[in-house]
Structure prediction request, 655 residues.
Amino acid sequence: MTGAVAVSLAAAILLAAPFLPPAALRALGGLFLAAPLFVLAPDRRLGALAAALLAAAAARWLPLRVLRRLTWLLPSLVLLVFVTTGLMYLAPGNPFANERVASPQVEAALRAQYGVPRSAVEFFGVYTRRLVLEGSLGPSLKVQGRGVADLLGPAIPVSLGLGLLALGLAVGAGLALGVAAALRPRSWLDHAAMGIALLGISLPNFVIGAGLMVLFALELGWLPVAGFAGPRHLVLPALTLAAPYAAYVARLARAGMLEVLQQDFVRTARAKGLSERAVIQNHALRGALLPVISFLAPAAAGILTGSFVVETLFGIPGMGQWFVKGAINRDYSLVLGTALFYAALVAALNLLADLLYAWLDPRVRETR
Amino acid sequence: MSAGAGPFAEALARLRRDPGALAGAALLAAIAAACAFGPWLLGQDPLATAPALRHQPPSAAHWFGTDALGRDLLARVLVGGRTSLAVGLAATAVSVGIGTLYGAVAGLYGGRIDELLMRVVDFLYGVPYMFLVILIMLLFADTARGEPLPVFVALGLVQWLTMARIVRGQVLSLREREFVLAARVAGAGDARILLRHLLPNALGPVVVYATLTVPAVILLESFLSFLGLGVALSWGELVAEGVSVVNPVRSYWWLLAFPSGFLAATLLALNFLGDGLRDALDPRSTP
Prediction:
């Protein structure tokens, strides 16, 4: 019952969002921004109060485009949980199917104990109610006696650290390569940079990872081969993870900058006697940054899930391994917990990219 | 090029002058031919094990060496190429089919239908694709591991989003043009307008994006193989095997080098060709 209502509501809001008046968008956006505060607060009443205050403040002060995005964010998370639940239930097998004593009574008892009804919609109801009312991700269905939050807790900083390091490397190296190539189009530097970039896109990153492992860990012995016991263990995985994205960033930055360099305002800047350095720094660099920033959110999503492979290759105890294990074992709540975390993170990054974009591109700032 | 040449003839002429695209096309043709006819000429069974010949380095008898079970690596790489190229083409076909239809409907009807359909695309964009791929693969958990069908479907189902956006954009910009209005006045229905007038004119970007989807899909399949979820005997699986034998004591470099060399060369060729096609079909994009 709760489940069906929650999904219908979420779908209705998503579909209606483009047609809502600004006042409704402001109210809903503020409410959705404050909702996690209510869920995570240790005390229900205090949480409700804080959330109400935050909702009111957000509705009053945040720009409309941010609130519009927020209106769309929470319902899409609800929908994601629902779709994931549906897919897990549709897949053959269930979390209790390979228990050794699989008599119907035992299965029923286990289902009752873990809160896993036979119907997907009911499970979705149980899951969302527990999430909203208790702020809990529930017990793992396969790792005995552990909550999903206990399992993911230590993995989150590892994956996040790896992801951020990789993202930073990708953007830094990519921008440097792309801008250098754009400054001297069709020179040997341009061809070399774009050749490297194309290679980075074309090699599976576990091959790059294995190569780095052989070179820096096995041959030179500068860095640890695999496992995780501190930041030094993240260097090779982060390089591996960053390589294809650095390549994309380089291509985007080059194309964006070349386009800007042909525009009238750059010609004007040159004509009024600005030094080439000032033209690049104050005008052209922005052109290189804009496409990179709109690529940031999908890149972050890709880097985070790309870490499934890199975590496996380097034996790093991050989020990816829990998702893969959870999916293979039909550990519904573990999969949902990971999915929810990734999706919320990607959504937050999207929001951030949106804000950055509006800040950098005056056309977007004024027209919306 | 002559003044009367159509846009496709002009594009072809531009493509002929792009060394990168030509090299890509030639390399691709060579690899495809080797994979198609090579195993037959070679006469080695990619599955025949030979315990006496385990981990042989490359030699005159086995050009690419042998693997942990003494199987001939050259035969495995060539047959694996068939699998990987088939995965790339089939999953791309699925994604082009879904994406074109979806984007065309959104663009043709416009307004609220368009808004709703594009919302779904936005929503799916927010979901990390590896997630969806793995979840969709779970639906086929009863099929034997290594079967190609679940991989085609799962990869095709996550790769159509950008295609839908591209086709929608094209259709939106084309549908108010005079030749479409003329067709409408002449009494053509939606289906006829779409198939005879809109889609043929949107073909360029679709071809370009499809060319770039093939390497993306082959790459995704190799990730799945690495996680143990891919198609049996594909380049991805061979590369994953090569990676798994990296160890500090003994080097079996040929197990990693040859499959990843073929994989990378193919992806590189496809990317070059796709970039060349894009430049050729959209002259403004060339700086």
